[in-house]
Amino acid sequence: MTTKTKTKTKDKLSKALKSKFIDELKDKKETDRLERVEANSKLKEVIVYTQSTCPFCKQLKEQMDTEGIKYIEKEWTEYPAEWAQVSEITQLGVFPTIEIDREFLVPRRDFQQVPQGIQRIIAMANPERLSGSNEIKLLEQFKTLNYNMSNAFQQLGKTLQPLQTFVQNIQKELDEEEKAEKEIKEKK
What we know:
The protein is of the alpha+beta class. Helices cover 66% and strands 8% of the residues. Helix 2 crosses helix 4.
């Protein structure tokens, strides 16, 4: 057998093994997903308030479909009174807002990315999870207040940074002038 033939045989074998390995990984991934879909089929009712032009809503719904999470979609323009009540409770009119047992998940406040939102939905919609207290509105408002205060402090920090730099520069100039005056007086 020539070296060229051995190389071709090795390449074919390598490609075949790689293909077999990739196929097995894909099969395992799909098996795992189907197990999650089965487990997620038992979740409590999930309501998703959406806006038709919201790309984040679309991403979340696609991932919920992939994970087998059943949900009721409520486009806010079709349920304006209900959406107004949800917005009043959460104090944030952000889409998609998710409701499970009169508790709410709001993007950027309760989750940052779709996978994190999916994890939170699964945890909150678990049928073995006990429902929240009767103080849901108050709890949601405290969470929103915390979120808003955090954002305000971050914005304040950004706003004050140029002022802080300006004051530091003036302080340096004053220190340099004072030092120069001292040197002049010492020379006299």
